Amino acid sequence: MTFSVVASGTLPMSYQWRRNGVFLGPASESPKFELRNVQPGQAGIYQVVVSNVAGEVISEFSDLVVIGIELKVGARGTEGSNVMVTVNPSDWNGQSGGNANLTLLYSKGETVALTAQQGIGDRVLFKQWLDNGKIASAEPMVTVKMDKEHIMLAEYEPGYMLTVTSGNPDNSALVTLSDNNRGDSDITPFTRLYHRGTIATLTAE
């Protein structure tokens, strides 16, 4: 966002900008004043005082109104459970997250990171983020650029329980598991929750 003014007269000229009657800094030789990443607190009446050896004059005013871009956050497949989502940075109203039924406001061009819960209870897993109906990420954390309104939906699905036991109930066994995303080991008996279609490899030692 850039304000500019055209003035004629004896050079040199100096320009000192103000908002709502309060000067925004020392005078400069530039007839332009730039605002970056505009926030609600920067809204107001802008004017510039132009000075030279003959005196000074105040420009007509320009009214800056700041309108935020909405980021709506929801969840699907949670069977009525609350889903916690965090956002960074906080929005104009100081919201940094909450249950996934949020409407947030950001400046145009701002980048926002959203993080959803990995799972809900012991049976439901995070599946993917949808951005305006299109798949955005299969990871719980996703970033969006606020160049337009976004409707972000965190999708969840039931997980499939894998139970591993030893053939000899009197002796536990060490089992190594691996899949496309992780590898670990555990002592029988134990359980793991997987997404549908996941191929898990088990190795007993």
Could you explain the architecture of this structure?
The chain is mostly beta strands and 205 residues long. 0% of the residues lie in helices and 53% in strands. The protein has strands at residues 2-4, 14-19, 22-23, 32-34, 44-52, 55-58, 62-64, 69-76, 84-88, 97-99, 102-106, 111-116, 119-120, 124-131, 134-137, 141-145, 150-158, 160-164, 174-178, 183-187, 190-194, 201-204. The strands form six sheets. Strands 8, 11, 13, 14, 15 and 17 form a six-stranded mixed beta sheet that branches. The termini are far apart. The mean pLDDT is 91.
Rg from alpha-carbon coordinates? 28 Å
Class of secondary structure makeup: mainly beta
State the helicity in percent bands: under 10%
Total helical segments = 0
Strand content: over 45%
Largest sheet: 6 strands, mixed
Shape: rod-shaped
Distance between the ends: 65 Å
Q: SSE order, as H and E?
A: EEEEEEEEEEEEEEEEEEEEEE
> What is the number of E strands?
22
User: Uncertain regions: pLDDT < 50 for 5+ in a row?
Assistant: none
Give the overall pLDDT as a whole number.
91
Short description:
0% of the residues lie in helices and 53% in strands. It has 205 residues and is mostly beta strands.
SSE map:
Blueprint: E1 2-4, E2 14-19, E3 22-23, E4 32-34, E5 44-52, E6 55-58, E7 62-64, E8 69-76, E9 84-88, E10 97-99, E11 102-106, E12 111-116, E13 119-120, E14 124-131, E15 134-137, E16 141-145, E17 150-158, E18 160-164, E19 174-178, E20 183-187, E21 190-194, E22 201-204
Parallel strand pairs: 8-17
Antiparallel strand pairs: 1-4, 2-3, 2-5, 5-6, 5-7, 8-11, 9-10, 9-12, 12-16, 13-14, 14-15, 14-17, 18-21, 19-20, 19-22
